């Protein structure tokens, strides 16, 4: 069906030529689903863009053949290529909301493709677009035809993208991280839809993902890519049970799964003994009947509804739920960036909710509660060096200056494993993992008692995530901190937390010690969450 | 879901129009107070250099300037509601009549200038964004830099020197029509429209010839912000994820560029256009002076110099109404382009 032979792609950048893909060869049989797995920068997306010849400016195929049904796509005219795109080979993208034209009705966007490839006339385009929407199982397709992307949920937008991709019955479907940015339950529904469509229309497919679990569940064969090259190839079971290449081994190890502990994510030579942290019975932070209500356009929106739970000294609590469940709102109220509508937040017995968020900066408890934010890049000032970022809380809240300040910063850098010479770099000169370390170092600068971590590893590659999670375990033991770990990933929470709180629609549906809750979930929603997460199949 | 009903949309537009009333009221108050705060005594000015105290006082009473400020204000507002903007001291004409004659002259000039500059700047910006770093991109940059850095009175004089003095292609830069033509009957006040209504193409062409140089001068100046914004907005739009989707679906470059990228880039361009229009209308006094254009800008400056209260107030009020209308139109255009922007509903 498709053969790629010795493909090389390079990008012209200001610092010279960068080889994004080298010596890549693959074959895709009819009806086969091929997975391409790798971490960011491995060249997996670039490969698919090269195949579609939609590389960004500066990108160029420098070598190789792209044979699709007898034609070398590298040499067909741009006109012919346009007829192949969308009709023979289609693509689904990550971040579905951004991948749709924001100011065009979704029905019209489907029509554009149908009309382009002469699959519909002016008269029947609408009917065919509605059929395409029905094919991706969108309810009330006639009504949704008139919707704009901003009126639809992320999962719904992804279905529209899929509808655009399959509208002209392509032979090959390329899915580039199709579920990134979607909730775990939506991810499952979308992936199952894609799988069913592939079978139903006997398409071949390429699934590009960083998630080994997802790849192992939905692919017949998997390629592992690293730095633009394929390092290993095989069937999911053999590849993940007996990985041959050291990189694949590292990747499999770093992916959280049922049988591992947190040190097990690291390569064996880096596994030091896991420090023990002690949990006392004394409550550190008690949340009592906490609510947050916003005034919405059509009536009040209850973001958090009458929530009560507690973090004990030394305890790590995981807060799980899907987007919109109120977990971030809760975290923001706890760190006192947001005022609750009702309820109390007792920190060592003091109600800190009584202090308005505006004045909390001067409150003595302020330095005891710190936060690590979700996006390590966006939460650092791009014009401040790592040193400036660390100095800020130390100057403002601890009053450190001069020599003592520098010494403290160097000690902090050492604690989070950040080489001191990187301190003078700006965020864009640091890698994702290094930025995460800066964010953590800034949060622990004042040795807080409670650290609130809002999805701190969501944007990181699995191998980096493994390192950061282990760093958090070490710091917890060394500094005796309590954690509130906000995440959508139950597997990660299981590795790090003693206690789990599951939220849905602003309310707590279930809470309990991690081990028993994961082993024996009581609430149906918890069971759904657990079942929806793709897990590496070791059987 | 935000399926807007037609009835609620009309209500929302009415509500948005209602929001303009406080703005206009504020403008009335501020223009009244500001003109009173101007240095200079209009009574003394109009009495002339030889006048004595008594005759100045006489004029002051005739002008109503002896009354308390509050009373003057209420008289002014009362006249406003009756449609009377007062009489200009310098021209001796009712201000409303002066404005009705001069505002169309300025509007015609500004609109034609903006038309020229849009027709040049937008395609230029699109081409520059499509091929960043190309010859056309550099040409765009040069033109933009030249446009902003050359003051309008300089380009105006330069154009007159070349096209009138050296080449003799343009008519003498003296107002809206050369003396050999008769002004068309007043319908809208826009000579191009009025002449077209009369089907007097001879006069129409005469008016066009007079318009070309001053309009080009203004267009060169307004080119820069529009071209720059088009280029930036197009670059952002073209690097969006949805453009990649459109390309991957096999849509033609034309469809991708105009149907997808340009419509998304339009919003910031229209915002810029609104701003450019507002400030050009007020700031084209230099061009009006150079080309002896009987516009509203030169009228206002002359009135300001002699503390001609009624004329200045009339000018400020006319501009305010124009800006309010303009902003309202831009808001309407926004909602037509971008479904995400809906009128705030209370």
List the helices and strands and how they pair.
The complex is a heterodimer of chains A (about 550) and B (about 350).
Chain A: E1 2-13, E2 16-28, E3 33-37, H1 44-52, E4 59-68, E5 71-72, H2 78-84, E6 89-92, H3 106-116, H4 125-135, H5 141-144, H6 154-166, E7 172-176, H7 184-200, E8 204-209, H8 212-218, E9 221-226, E10 229-234, H9 236-241, H10 246-254, E11 283-296, E12 299-312, E13 316-320, H11 327-334, E14 342-347, E15 350-351, E16 369-372, H12 386-398, H13 402-415, H14 432-444, E17 450-454, H15 462-479, E18 482-487, H16 490-496, E19 499-504, E20 507-513, H17 514-519, H18 524-532
Parallel strand pairs in A: 3-8, 3-9, 6-7, 7-8, 13-18, 13-19, 16-17, 17-18
Antiparallel strand pairs in A: 1-2, 1-4, 4-5, 9-10, 11-12, 11-14, 14-15, 19-20
Helix pairs in contact in A: 3-4, 4-6, 6-7, 10-15, 12-14, 14-15
Chain B: H1 6-18, H2 20-37, H3 42-47, H4 53-63, H5 69-81, H6 95-130, H7 135-149, H8 152-166, H9 191-197, H10 201-238, H11 241-248, H12 253-283, H13 285-290, H14 296-305, H15 309-337
Order of neighbouring strands in the sheet with most strands of chain A = 6-7-8-3-9-10
Indicate the percent of residues in helices of chain B.
over 70%
Shape of chain B: globular
| SS-based class of chain B | mainly alpha
User: Structural class per helix/strand content of chain A?
Assistant: alpha/beta
The average pLDDT of chain B is: 84
Structure description:
- The complex is a heterodimer of chains A (539) and B (346).
- Chain A has 539 residues and is α/β, with parallel strands linked by helices.
- Chain A has helices at 44-52, 78-84, 106-116, 125-135, 141-144, 154-166, 184-200, 212-218, 236-241, 246-254, 327-334, 386-398, 402-415, 432-444, 462-479, 490-496, 514-519, 524-532; strands at residues 2-13, 16-28, 33-37, 59-68, 71-72, 89-92, 172-176, 204-209, 221-226, 229-234, 283-296, 299-312, 316-320, 342-347, 350-351, 369-372, 450-454, 482-487, 499-504, 507-513.
- Chain A has a six-stranded mixed β-sheet with strand order 6-7-8-3-9-10, with helices on both faces. In chain A, strands 16-17-18-13-19-20 form a six-stranded mixed β-sheet, sandwiched between helices. Chain A has a four-stranded antiparallel β-sheet with strand order 2-1-4-5.
- In chain A, a hairpin with a 2-residue loop joins strand 19 and strand 20 (507-513).
- The model of chain A has no long low-confidence stretch (mean pLDDT 90).
- Chain B is 74% helix and 0% strand.
- The model of chain B has no long low-confidence stretch (mean pLDDT 84).
- Chain B folds into two domains: 1-90 and 310-346, no CATH class; 98-305, MetI-like (MetI-like fold).
- Chain B has helices spanning 6-18, 20-37, 42-47, 53-63, 69-81, 95-130, 135-149, 152-166, 191-197, 201-238, 241-248, 253-283, 285-290, 296-305, 309-337.
- Chain B has 346 residues and is mostly helical.
- Chain B is globular and about 85 Å long.
- The interface between A and B is medium-sized, with 33 and 26 residues.
């Amino acid at each position: 069906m498709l053969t790629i032979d010795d493909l090389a792609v390079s990008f012209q950048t200001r610092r010279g030529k960068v080889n994004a893909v080298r010596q890549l060869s693959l074959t895709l049989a009819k009806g086969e689903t091929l997975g391409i797995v790798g971490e960011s920068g491995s060249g997996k997306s670039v490969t698919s863009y090269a195949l579609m010849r939609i590389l960004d400016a500066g990108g160029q195929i420098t070598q190789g053949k792209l044979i699709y049904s007898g034609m070398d796509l590298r040499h067909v005219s741009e006109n012919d290529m346009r007829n192949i795109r969308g009709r023979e080979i289609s693509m689904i993208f990550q971040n579905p909301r951004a991948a749709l034209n924001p100011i065009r009705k979704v029905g019209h966007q489907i029509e554009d493709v149908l009309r382009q490839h002469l699959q519909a006339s002016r008269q029947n385009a609408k009917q065919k677009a509605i059929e395409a929407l029905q094919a991706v199982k969108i309810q009330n397709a006639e009504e949704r035809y008139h919707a704009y992307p901003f009126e639809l949920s992320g999962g719904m937008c992804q279905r529209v993208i899929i509808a655009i991709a399959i509208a002209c019955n392509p032979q090959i479907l390329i899915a580039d991280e199709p579920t990134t940015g979607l909730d775990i339950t939506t991810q499952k529904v979308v992936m199952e839809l894609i799988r069913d469509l592939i079978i139903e229309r006997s398409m071949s497919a390429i699934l590009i993902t960083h998630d080994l679990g997802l790849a192992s569940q939905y692919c017949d064969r998997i390629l592992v890519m690293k730095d633009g090259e394929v390092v290993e190839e095989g069937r999911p079971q053999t590849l993940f049970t007996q990985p041959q290449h050291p990189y694949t081994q590292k990747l499999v190890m770093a992916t959280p799964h049922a049988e591992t502990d947190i040190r097990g994510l690291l390569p064996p030579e880096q596994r030091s003994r896991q420090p023990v942290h002690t949990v006392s019975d004394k409550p550190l932070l008690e949340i009592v009947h906490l609510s947050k209500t916003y005034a919405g356009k059509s009536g009040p929106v209850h973001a958090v509804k009458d929530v009560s739970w507690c973090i004990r000294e030394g305890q790590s609590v995981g807060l799980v739920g899907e987007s919109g469940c109120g977990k971030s709102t809760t975290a923001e109220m706890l760190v006192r960036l947001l005022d609750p509508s009702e309820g109390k937040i007792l920190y060592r017995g003091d109600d800190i909710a009584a202090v308005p968020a505006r004045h909390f900066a001067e409150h003595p408890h302020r330095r005891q509660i710190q936060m690590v934010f979700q996006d390590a890049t966006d939460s650092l000032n791009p014009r401040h060096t790592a040193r400036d970022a660390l100095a800020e809380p130390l100057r403002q809240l601890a009053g450190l200056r001069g020599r003592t300040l520098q010494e403290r910063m160097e000690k902090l850098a050492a604690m989070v494993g950040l080489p001191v010479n990187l301190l003078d770099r700006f965020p864009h000169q640091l890698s994702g993992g290094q930025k995460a370390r800066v964010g953590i170092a800034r949060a622990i600068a004042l040795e807080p008692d409670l650290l609130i971590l809002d999805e701190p590893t969501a944007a990181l590659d699995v191998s980096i995530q493994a390192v950061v999670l282990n760093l958090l375990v070490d710091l917890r033991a060394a500094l005796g901190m309590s954690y509130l770990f906000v995440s959508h990933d139950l597997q990660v929470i299981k590795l790090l937390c003693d206690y789990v709180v599951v939220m849905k629609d602003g309310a707590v549906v279930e809470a309990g010690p991690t081990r028993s809750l994961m082993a024996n979930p009581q609430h149906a929603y918890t069971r759904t969450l657990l079942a929806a997460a793709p897990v590496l199949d070791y059987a | 879901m935000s399926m807007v009903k037609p009835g609620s949309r009309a209500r929302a537009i009415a509500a948005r129009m209602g929001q303009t009333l406080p703005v206009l009221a504020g403008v009335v108050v501020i223009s009244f107070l500001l003109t009173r705060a101007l240095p200079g005594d209009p009574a003394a000015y109009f009495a002339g250099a030889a006048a004595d105290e008594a005759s100045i006082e006489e004029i002051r009473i005739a002008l109503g300037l002896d009354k308390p400020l509050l009373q003057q204000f209420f008289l002014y507002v009362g006249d406003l509601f009756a449609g009377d903007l007062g009489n200009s001291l310098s021209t001796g004409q009712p201000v409303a009549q002066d404005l009705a004659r001069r505002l169309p002259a300025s509007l015609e000039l500004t609109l034609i200038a903006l038309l020229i500059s849009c027709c040049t700047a937008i395609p230029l910006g699109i081409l520059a964004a499509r091929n960043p770093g190309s010859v056309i991109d550099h040409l765009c940059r040069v033109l933009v830099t030249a446009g902003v850095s050359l003051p309008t009175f300089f380009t105006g004089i330069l154009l007159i020197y070349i096209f009138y003095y050296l080449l003799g292609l343009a008519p003498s830069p003296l107002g809206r029509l050369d003396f050999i033509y008769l002004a068309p009957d007043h319908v809208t006040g826009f000579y191009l429209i009025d002449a077209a209504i009369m089907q007097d193409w001879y006069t129409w062409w005469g008016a066009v010839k007079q318009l070309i140089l001053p309009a080009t001068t203004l267009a060169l100046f307004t080119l820069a912000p529009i071209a720059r914004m088009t280029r930036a907005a197009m670059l952002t739009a073209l690097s969006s994820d949805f453009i990649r989707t459109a390309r991957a679906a096999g849509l033609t470059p034309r469809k991708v560029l105009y149907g997808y990228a340009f419509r998304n880039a339009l919003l910031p361009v229209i915002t810029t256009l609104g701003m450019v229009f507002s400030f050009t209308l007020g700031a084209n006094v230099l061009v009006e002076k150079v080309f002896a254009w009987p516009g509203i800008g030169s009228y206002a400056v002359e009135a300001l110099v002699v503390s001609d209260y009624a004329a200045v107030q009339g000018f400020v009020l006319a501009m305010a109404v124009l800006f309010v209308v303009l902003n309202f139109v831009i808001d309407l255009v926004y909602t037509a382009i971008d479904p995400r922007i809906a009128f705030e509903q209370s």
